Amino acid sequence: MGKCEITREYLHASDVHCHHYVPKNLGGSDQFQNLRILHKVCGVEGIVVSSLEE
């Protein structure tokens, strides 16, 4: 499927959480360029650092 952008772990489809670089409520879209693949634990538990802070 791909690997998590945070842990660099290779993921199975059942472990993937799709996350937005720019949140939709801040004008982000669902276009491929605005999406990142994360392990579902990273996305759900709020481990994500906003790309605006990077």
User: Order of strands side by side in the largest beta sheet?
Assistant: 1-2
Judging from the principal axes of the Cα atoms, what is the shape?
globular
Number of helices: 1
- Total strands: the figure is 4
For the CA atoms, what is the radius of gyration? Answer: 11 Å
Task: Give the percentage of residues in beta strands.
Answer: 25-35%
Mean pLDDT across the residues is 81
- Residues in helices, as a percent range: under 10%
Topology:
Blueprint: E1 2-3, E2 10-11, E3 16-20, E4 35-39, H1 40-44
Write up this protein:
The protein is mainly beta and 54 residues long. The chain has one domain. The chain has 1 helix and 4 strands; from the N terminus they run ββββα. It has one helix at residues 40-44, and strands at residues 2-3, 10-11, 16-20, 35-39. It has a two-stranded antiparallel ribbon with strand order 1-2. It is globular and about 30 Å long. Mean pLDDT is 81; it is low at 50-54.
Give a summary of the structure in a few sentences.
This protein is mainly β and 54 residues long. The chain has one domain (2-44).
